[in-house]
Amino acid sequence: VSGISFLIAIAIGLSYTPALYLAIALAFSSTVVVVKLLSDKNELETLHGRIALGILIVEDFVAAFVLMIVPVLGAGDFSTIFIQIGTSLLLIVGVFLFAYLIFPRALAIAAKSQEVLFLFGISWALLVAVLFDSLGFSMEIGALLAGMALASSRYSLEIKGKIKGLMDFFVILFFVFFGAQLVGPITQELIIQASIFSAFILIGKPLIIMSIMKTIGYKKRTNFFTGTSLAQISEFSLILILLGFTLGIVNQELFSLAILIALITIALSSYSIYFSKPIYKFLSPFLNIFDGHKKELGIGKKTEKHEIILLGYNRIGFNLLKAFEKTKKKYLVIDYNPQTVLNLSNKGINCIYGDINDLELLRSINIRKAKIVISTIPDLEANLEVMDLIKDKKIIFIPTSHTISNTKKLYSAGASYVIMPHFLGGHFVAQMLIRDKFNKRKLLKEGEKQRKELEERLF
């Protein structure tokens, strides 16, 4: 990505140093945007979500290293630069040692009060950031290391919950700040340049990622969703450009160009991620060149005839599998979480990796020949598509829904029975209380039974 970006920058007339700087900045994707959107779509645990997150983590480490190196490059001769880089590495090691040896004790004391814990977390982040800045290094790296130390503590969830509002506020300020830096005339030439780079990031970058993933062997669907997830530039890209602008390496025009590219790519990629499934459905016939030959996860065979097909294991599937095994029915489990599929495979359970939205996969497993299809995924559109694919009214289809309106639609479309976890849970508790006559001893016994079952659910 950086190589092609550099060639594009040279082609539009940039000199070598600014072109190289911009090319490096454009190589990174936005962790904030990707994690937020994939989390909203419940896709972080999918195979493409895990791959995208892994790539982002590697990119963030590389970006952090670049931000650490850039400020010391103008320090003088190589010996001076080497000493400063060594000093920064020792500083990083020192922060991590402090976070491992002393930090947990300080956090334990601060955690006695939620307000003190909140203030301690903020103070720690500011202290490390200022320390790095006072020693001539990047303040952003200091803040990143402070955040990593907080994330590794056992109080990370409490701190995250407390600072969420503050975090959202500063994210807004972050983008407001860079928007305010878009000063000077937005010329036609600047818009054309931004459009060229944005087109490459939105189209060329996903194609490069898809091609690399194909060589590894991943299927075209996974490749497409991973590629489209990373089709934007990162917040680190803007920080890197700002650092270059501060050091005099980047001029105002190039700074404005980077901000425009960020605005275009983040805005458009957000929609491409959100609507990735219909986009894939439309483009799927043209993506066969990106189809790899990696062995499917799981131990199930698509070509076999299965009496029962379970779409999604999650929480409901545990008890359903017990019922299948008691009746000695031949079944197949399909789940989009690769870790779940691997764990089920290790237990000898007939399963394969897949997504309910992948109609090609559902056709390949001969879903129309099954007697019962159960979907534990509360996605109305996906369940309706499965019903449309099955068509045969003789097949029992049992989808899942969390709302009354969606349940009514599923029944109208021909569902045999709709699982509503919240309603079933309330009904079960009510029946249990009536059966046991609100007896505390019997209730504690049921609780102990549930606790043992929860232990069994853990792989």
Descriptive report:
- The chain is mainly alpha-helical.
- Helices cover 68% and strands 4% of the residues.
- It contains 21 helices and 5 strands.
- It has helices at residues 2-11, 16-26, 31-40, 47-69, 78-101, 103-110, 114-134, 139-151, 156-180, 188-216, 220-229, 235-246, 252-274, 276-283, 314-327, 338-346, 359-364, 380-390, 404-413, 421-436, 440-457; strands at residues 308-311, 331-335, 351-353, 372-375, 396-398.
- A 5-stranded parallel sheet has the order 3-2-1-4-5, with helices on one face.
- Strand 2, helix 16 (338-346) and strand 3 (351-353) form a beta-alpha-beta unit.
- Helix 5 (78-101) runs parallel beside helix 8 (139-151) and helix 7 (114-134) runs antiparallel to helix 8.
- The mean pLDDT is 82.
Backbone CA Rg: 27 Å
Task: Note poorly predicted spans.
Answer: none
Number of helices: 21
**Main pleated sheet:** 5 strands, parallel
Gap between N and C termini, in Å? 39 Å
- Described by its quaternary structure, the protein is single chain
Instruction: Spell out the helices and strands N to C.
Output: HHHHHHHHHHHHHHEHEHEHEHEHHH
Strand order of the largest sheet: 3-2-1-4-5
> How much helical structure, as a percent, in the residues?
55-70%
- Structural class from helices and strands? mainly alpha
The coarse silhouette is globular
> How many β-strands, per DSSP?
5
How much of the residues is beta strand, in percent? under 5%
User: Average pLDDT value?
Assistant: 82
